[in-house]
């Protein structure tokens, strides 16, 4: 007889009834192959004594096993494992797997070997991040108030049903008005798809534009997750140099003579990671090349709302008269990263196709949340938040860069960014960024190791240092730890 006293472990504080716990234990023993078809189960009296529960509870467990088809009863003989069940191989161990080594239990394609793990900043009490907003500044209470208000209204219940994969019509109207007012981008709601952040927009555009044996041009230094989305869609990335004036469009023009470029991915406003801005003449030439060679421009404008010195350059989408631009933006990166709201704009038929694709991976967004954001746009709360945040972030940028200038001159070189939420910092070649990240972590500071900014053609000893999510006290503490780590040497 099996050691049932050890194998059947009961939790008397569990909301699951004791008889169901016993039943489930027997099912587990059967599916693991420890009990085989026609094996006899211990009598109710013996099992009750072994595991210390009432005999009637065991009877109920056996009845449940019989009702579910796992066991059968023979008059005057007892209860047995169902004889018609297939014979299962016995598990290697009570908790182990029948597989050996690294062999998978089923066949599948792993296209993500070597992919960098996602960053978990939710547990970091002090972090120099990639350049994210300070979620403490976001008017979350107002947003939640609008969310609750809509959910309580009689028409709010309808937003709990399935809706359009394009997103809330009201939010698409709000985004359309906001982009027209602030960025000169004139589009109808039918040309807008609400996404779960800008990354979904990049993925959807990649899937529609690219395939095997296609080419997409992107910066020599570039946003890593965009590169991975392009490759996952089957595209080959053609690297274009990036200098102080942004992507080198003259170089791109020469590439177009030899390669049939399907799309160009560009971050013209605060290039990621280097923060440089694409010049006006290069913008116009890029649009002219797109029209001539009939390629799409994926314009990633993830942080347009934050600029500190002069008025920002208007997006390519605002001066595109040939509908070559697919414009992608994010509310998440200017409000709070975990609230996944973004948008993608393009020709109406392209957006319709993207909406159909979106349904295959995410039926729709959170309509109630989208409606709440609509109210925030309509009552001016979003613009007030952006104006207030911009003043705060400018002061933080100045303070952060001032400390970098005075305290890190021998370790870091940088240019003060005109906008955005992060500084592109170039570290001395003698500095091991992996070691810096490890040592800083031991002292309570999260900081990246620089790998996120590298690719097959770009490997500078650099990283983005986000200043926006740290107040003055936190900045001093974080940079104090970083200075100590850098000064300690190898």
Task: Please provide a written account of the structure.
With 490 residues, the chain is α/β, with parallel strands linked by helices. The protein folds into 3 domains: 4-81, Orthogonal Bundle (Arc Repressor Mutant, subunit A), CATH 1.10.10; 127-132 and 384-488, Aspartate Aminotransferase, domain 1 (Alpha-Beta Complex); 158-378, Aspartate Aminotransferase, domain 2 (3-Layer(aba) Sandwich), CATH 3.40.640.10. 39% of the residues lie in helices and 14% in strands. It has a 7-stranded mixed sheet, sandwiched between helices. It has a 3-stranded antiparallel sheet with strand order 13-14-16, covered by helices on one side. α2 crosses α4 (55-67) and α7 (198-209) packs parallel to α8. The longest helix has 27 residues, at 381-407. The protein is elongated, with a radius of gyration of 30 Å. It starts with a helix and ends with a helix.
């Amino acid at each position: 007889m099996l050691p049932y006293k050890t194998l059947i472990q009961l939790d008397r504080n569990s909301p699951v009834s004791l008889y169901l716990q016993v039943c489930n234990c027997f099912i587990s023993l059967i599916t693991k192959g420890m009990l085989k078809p026609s094996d006899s189960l211990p009598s109710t009296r013996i099992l009750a004594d072994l595991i210390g529960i009432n005999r009637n509870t065991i009877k109920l467990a056996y009845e449940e096993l019989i009702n579910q088809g796992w066991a059968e009863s023979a008059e005057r003989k007892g209860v047995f494992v169902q004889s018609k069940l297939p014979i299962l191989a016995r598990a290697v161990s009570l908790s182990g797997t029948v597989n050996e080594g690294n062999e998978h239990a089923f066949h599948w394609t792993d296209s993500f070997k070597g992919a960098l793990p996602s960053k978990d900043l939710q547990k970091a009490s002090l972090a120099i991040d990639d350049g994210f907003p300070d979620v403490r500044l976001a008017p979350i209470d107002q947003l939640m108030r609008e969310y609750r208000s809509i959910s309580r209204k009689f028409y709010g219940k309808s937003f709990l049903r399935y809706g359009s994969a394009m997103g809330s019509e009201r939010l698409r109207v709000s985004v359309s008005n906001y982009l027209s007012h602030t960025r000169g981008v004139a589009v109808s709601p039918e040309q807008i798809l609400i996404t779960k952040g800008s990354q979904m927009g990049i993925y959807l555009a990649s899937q529609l534009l690219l395939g095997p044996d296609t080419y997409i041009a992107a910066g020599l230094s570039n946003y890593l997750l965009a590169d991975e989305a392009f490759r996952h869609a089957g595209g080959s990335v053609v690297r274009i140099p990036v200098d102080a004036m942004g992507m080198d469009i003259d170089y791109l023009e020469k590439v177009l003579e030899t390669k049939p470029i399907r799309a160009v991915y560009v971050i013209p406003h605060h290039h990621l990671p280097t923060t440089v801005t694409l010049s006006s003449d290069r913008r116009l030439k890029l649009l002219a090349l797109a029209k001539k060679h009939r390629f799409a421009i994926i314009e990633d404008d993830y942080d347009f709302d934050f600029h500190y010195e002069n008025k920002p350059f208007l997006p390519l989408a605002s001066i595109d008269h040939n509908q070559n631009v697919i414009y992608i933006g994010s509310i998440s990166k200017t409000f709070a990263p975990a609230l996944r709201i973004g948008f993608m704009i393009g020709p109406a038929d392209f957006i319709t196709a993207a909406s159909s694709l979106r349904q295959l991976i995410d039926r729709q967004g959170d309509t109630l949340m989208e409606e709440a954001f609509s109210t925030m746009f309509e009552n001016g709360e979003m613009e007030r938040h952006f104006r207030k945040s911009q003043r705060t972030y400018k002061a933080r940028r100045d303070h952060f860069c001032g400390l970098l200038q005075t305290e890190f001159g021998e370790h870091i070189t940088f240019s003060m960014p005109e906008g955005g939420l992060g500084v592109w910092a170039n570290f001395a070649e003698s500095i091991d960024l992996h070691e810096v990240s490890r040592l800083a972590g031991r002292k309570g500071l999260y900081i990246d190791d620089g790998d996120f900014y590298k690719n097959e053609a770009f490997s500078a000893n650099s990283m983005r240092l986000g200043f926006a999510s740290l107040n003055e006290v936190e900045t001093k503490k974080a940079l104090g730890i970083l200075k100590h780590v850098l000064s300690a040497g190898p």
